[in-house]
Amino acid sequence: MNNKERIIVDGVNVSKCSHLYIHPETGAKWCTHRRFGGCAAMPSCHFKEVVRLKLKCKAERIKNTRLQKRITKELIKQDRYRKALDEIEKLAIKTNRDLCNNCGWVNTISCIPSEYICGDIKQILDIINKAKKGGCDD
Hints:
- This protein is mainly α.
- About 55% of the residues lie in helices and about 5% in strands.
- The longest helix has about 55 residues, at about 45-100.
């Protein structure tokens, strides 16, 4: 038997089974577990089960690799969003500082930073903080 020859029984390649006997002259193939009815009568023999488990493990590894790639992509995307939020937060803080420093009312009784533009920037910063902590409820 050459390496490329495959003997399929119950959906499993049994060409490498140690119980498979190939007659040297005729090439006839049979399972040496004849007392149990041979290969076809034993759909769950040890060799077939091992082959099936190996195939199942290989399929699971492929599935896990795909899942790992998806998780990695999601983490990269989350990192990009976090960096974008950081940049927006820095810009909002700078804008708020610049507006307050250039306002004619700063540090006077008429300065009401919770209203108008300063209040909006505070809301933006609150939204960013909620997103960084894990989500927005609103």
